[in-house]
Fold this protein.
Amino acid sequence: MTHPWSVWLVPCEKDKIQLQSLITQYCGQHNSPVFKPHITLFSRVEINPSSTFSVFENIVKNFDSISLKVMGAKTGKPPWKSLYLQVEKTGILVQLQKEIDRFFNGYRPYEFDPHLSLAYGNHEIINSHLDDISFPETITFSSVALVRTPNEITDWKTINHFRLGGGVSP
């Protein structure tokens, strides 16, 4: 059995830099491991990821970059939603996720709640501190990544990137 992996929607380079800075800042404040900015489209897959590469190449070629409005900073159920940015659930985003979900149909149900985490862990965030978080009004996403996601965040590793609009990203 392979390590579990997930499907991520990844920001464009400009937005990735700004978001990585936020993630590094808030992970540091909450003593949690740093990770790359993303929205999870499907998680905890345990099939051979290379067997899905052609499927993802076909899916992403039908979608251009996706810009999403950030609805605000929020807290939720730890550890995976301790601190996050809620993003707009647009029709095009739902369509992309449904294409991926359709491929994994029967694998397991997945509840899609589009958000971009800023910190993981079992800590409480004071709601009044959410107003102090400076975040972009919109985030543009340019690729889909397959990422090995074992339980230890420090062991997460990108398997492959697929640029929206087609092609493998560097």
Observations:
- The beta strands are 5-11, 39-45, 66-74, 83-87, 115-119, 138-148, 157-163.
- The mean pLDDT is 91.
- The radius of gyration is 15 Å.
- The CA atoms of residues 50 and 159 lie 9 Å apart.
